[in-house]
Amino acid sequence: MYTQGLDIPGGEPGAGNSAAKGKPQTTEPAELQADFDAKMAADRKIEPQDWMPEAYRKTLIRQISQHDHSEIVGMLPEGNWISRAPSLKRKAILLAKVQDEGGHGLYLSSAAETLNASRDDMIDALQTGKAKYFSIFNYSTPTWAAVGVIGWLVDGAAIMNQIPLCRCSYGPYARAMIRICKEESFHQRQGLELLLNMMQGTEAQRAMVQEAVNRWWRPVLMMFGPPDAESVHSSQAQAWGIKRISNDDLRQKFIDAAVQQAEVLGVGFPDPDLKWNAERGHHDFCAIDWDEFWNVVGGNGP
Ligand SMILES: [Fe+2]
Ligand SMILES: [Fe+2]
Asked: Which of 15, 68, 208, 254 has the CB geometry, 3.0–4.6 Å to 108, for a possible disulfide?
């Protein structure tokens, strides 16, 4: 029973969409599972009042809570720059962006609550280290250019990760992601525009941008998660329609797009192996230091 304590109009636990379709209600585990499997096969959404396997619910809670925590923790490094933004215009843009991230956390907490995950439990799991957030937010932002790079690359990588989630099989998560992605697109653009402005400025400003890009490029590539071969949760999440595109495919897609944007900006990426591979139709890039990734995820800092 997944709707305990939630007041969802018209939703009887175990009824699922089949009730709405006029099919008889069932409480037989095998039939409930068959109904769930049929929805998965037909690419239909699972809603809070529907029966779902416990492992599906737990996977969603883990992913949504990690995403939720990342939105909230992500406000911290940028929030520090609000009072230091170099102009009124930049201050207003950054304020709006940081406020959006708080909103994203709110939409995601609400989506998790429809799965019976309480906010207290989720915050407790974060504070005791049981729940994670994106390791990227452990990297420091010592210059204004880092704020631009967070928008361009970190929000850019987030969009790449999150657009497929708009088609996620769990309705409340998918619908939250549609609005989040629209706002993330503004975040990415403001970062790119901020950097473009600096690149048209002085030599010192251009150097500051390149330094920030050098520092953030490799951690950003880690945002797509471990390689597919090592990703523990990926294949089940793909079968359930929670994850639509693999970590490695998303990472490649991101790199191919970022290379073109870097050319427009006039910056380079710190990777001697980064080059176009005509045979693959993608850019090659050098191996990622996954020891660093696991170390940062483990809470030991960059
Ligand atoms: Fe966000
Ligand atoms: Fe964002």
From this structure: 68
